[in-house]
């Protein structure tokens, strides 16, 4: 019963009417034997994606070794220490509020906690700030992760460019659709796609611990501000040229218009092109964010916080924010510090 259900599900998912052009079956893509039983022409197979799973485990193992024996020594040599953030003073009441109620208490709750613990409001605020920061990864961890991704992306880009550059369909995109889908699968192209797919599958093992970072973050973590600024500006120029120029006028042009002309649409054609167009919309949004950051950089003289990344506030930055808002506190007649609720809310929003 289970085997029959699995076979039925597999047949439905890999439906030839959905994935393949009209009058093409999976059996047609089985390949052609070579002379005297040797290996002949090989076409892409749906089962090829399964090869990425065991390879993903290998890539994940290589990553662990790379971060420990290559990235970490490089970080230490650059002066990046494995120093964690300041840990909050143990307090059962505040810990319960932090884990069960809120990580960013408002002014009224701060007043209540101040009376309950007989603590200064600013001290409670600082406790919550330190408690939030102590769960964040160290700069060393961020550097190692960024260096691993930078190394892989640079390597796979160089490998892909090496063989794609000499491919005729790289220069004439119409050749991508001649005799489609009966196009021989070379070993270079096979390994390129399988390596890429295995890499992204390997991220499944660390998706809950990884902190997404850009390659330019390496210079930022190493405190090389000028290099960081130059790298970001170079990245911005390359991103805009490739995502707003090459991608829509070269890639989308061939997948949408040239493929329609040469082979015509079929069900999965709409799915893939819908995803590609959605990606182009994201490219436009990200480009606007990059341009905004670049504009701020020109006005301020250095790259400000990257709006595309999540907040990377440190304890020191939070302390500076706290020091700049000392004026919002006042002392009541019973000696307990008070905080203006509106200003406090703005501060928490800015900090988080």
SSE blueprint:
Layout: H1 2-13, H2 16-19, H3 52-77, H4 92-100, H5 107-117, H6 121-133, H7 139-164, H8 168-171, H9 187-202, H10 217-221, H11 225-262, H12 267-300, H13 315-323, E1 329-331, E2 337-339, H14 341-351
Antiparallel strand pairs: 1-2
Overall spatial form:
elongated
Strand order, largest beta sheet: 1-2
Oligomer class = single chain
Helix content: 55-70%
The end-to-end distance, rounded to whole angstroms, is 53 Å
Radius of gyration: 27 Å
Low-confidence stretches: 310-352
User: Major β-sheet, in short?
Assistant: 2 strands, antiparallel
Number of helices: 14
The fraction of residues in strands falls at under 5%
Structural class, by secondary structure, is mainly alpha
Average pLDDT number: 83
Instruction: Report the count of strand segments.
Output: 2
Architecture overview:
Residues 310-352 have low confidence and may be disordered. It is built from 14 helices and two strands. With 352 residues, it is mainly alpha-helical. It is elongated, with a radius of gyration of 27 Å.
Task: Please summarize what this structure is.
Helix content is 62%, strand content 2%. The two termini are 53 Å apart.
């Amino acid at each position: 019963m289970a085997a029959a259900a699995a076979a039925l599900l597999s047949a439905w998912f890999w439906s030839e009417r959905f994935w393949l052009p009209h009058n093409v079956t999976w059996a047609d893509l089985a390949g052609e034997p070579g002379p005297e039983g040797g290996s002949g022409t090989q076409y892409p197979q749906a089962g090829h994606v399964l090869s990425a799973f065991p390879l993903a485990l290998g890539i994940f193992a290589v990553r662990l070794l790379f971060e420990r024996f290559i990235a970490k020594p490089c970080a230490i040599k650059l002066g990046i220490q494995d120093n964690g953030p300041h840990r909050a003073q143990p307090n059962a009441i505040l810990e319960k509020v932090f884990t069960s109620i809120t990580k960013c208490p408002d002014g009224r709750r701060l007043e209540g906690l101040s009376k309950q613990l007989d603590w200064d409001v600013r001290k409670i605020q600082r406790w919550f700030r330190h408690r939030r920061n102590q769960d964040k990864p160290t700069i060393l961890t961020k550097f190692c992760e960024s260096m691993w991704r930078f190394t892989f992306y640079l390597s796979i880009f160089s490998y892909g460019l090496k063989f794609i550059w000499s491919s005729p369909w790289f220069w004439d995109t119409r050749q991508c659709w001649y005799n489609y889908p009966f196009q021989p699968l070379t070993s270079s192209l096979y390994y390129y796609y399988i390596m890429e797919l295995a890499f992204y599958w390997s991220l499944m093992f660390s998706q809950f611990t990884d902190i997404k970072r850009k390659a330019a973050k390496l210079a930022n973590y190493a405190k090389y501000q000028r290099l960081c600024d130059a790298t970001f500006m170079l990245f911005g120029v390359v991103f805009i040229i490739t995502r707003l120029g090459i991608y829509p006028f070269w890639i989308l042009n061939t997948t949408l218009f040239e493929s329609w002309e040469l082979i015509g649409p079929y069900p999965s054609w709409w799915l893939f092109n819908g995803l590609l167009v959605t990606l182009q919309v994201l490219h436009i949004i990200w480009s606007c964010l990059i341009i905004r950051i670049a504009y701020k950089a020109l006005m301020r003289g250095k790259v400000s916080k990257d709006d595309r990344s999540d907040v990377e506030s440190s304890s020191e930055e939070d302390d500076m924010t706290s020091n700049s808002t000392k004026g919002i506190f006042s002392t009541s007649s019973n000696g307990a510090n008070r905080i203006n609720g509106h200003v406090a809310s703005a501060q928490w929003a800015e900090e988080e």
